[in-house]
Amino acid sequence: MEDLLADRILVTDLARFRRVVDLRASGSVGLPSGHISREELAKIPAGGTFEVRDKRYYVLPCDMHDFIMDGLKRNTQIVYPKDSGYILIKLDICPGRRVAEAGTGSGALTAVFSRAVGPEGRVYSYEQDIGLVNHAAKSLRLGPEDRNVVIRHQGLEQGIHEENLDAFFLDVRDPWKLLSIVYDALKPGGHLGILVPTTNQVSRVLLAFNKTDYLVTEVAEIFLRTYKAVPARLRPMDRMIGHTGYLVFARRMQPGALSRPDAGPESPLGRRDDDGPLGYGDQDIEDD
Question: What average pLDDT does the structure give for the chain?
């Protein structure tokens, strides 16, 4: 995939105004106090400033966070950076990996995956809405010869073309219906991540895992609270994104590897202790 951040800059007044500007486009850029041409903006060095009608603005290179939050046109809800960073770690995404997702949506997580796997890796994105396919392809600057990202216009119910994938991420309405299809596309030990917006959906996912050969490793929700960077009156920002989604992570096991002699609705792993599945950092302690 073409470098999304090339020729893009962030213009901000360090207050409420933030705009990602594509310097390759035409026309002037609207600001709260007036306009400036893209030709003039291109001459301002990174970290520089300029004024329009006595109001000062600052210019910075556009980073991935800027692009997703301020530069990506959203036709759907997106996976926020606070979640996508954790998803990268949990799915063990790194250069050279082969990862798939469904659905593409506006392409925010697709962009993050593409950058993480690098030119030698591959991202396969499944989306059944042709409007979203076209929107994402345009937003991500995908060309006909692009090999880093492949967007497939189809639902997973129609099958998955790839095999032995390192990881798969589901951001769809009914992910519990797709677990067996994804299982066949993952390599043994491969990672599965799921994002759903409601707790009842989490419960349905966990119940569906009871009938599969996945090892559930974590159910989590991530909160981010930012602060006003004023030393004399440091306090949280007045507004925050209170909820984005619940994350469920699992690993593909060998068929029959998980013995569930008494598996029930209390636990996706067949454990009936009050704490649920054994989590990272927990230990079973035996008396000497």
Answer: 91
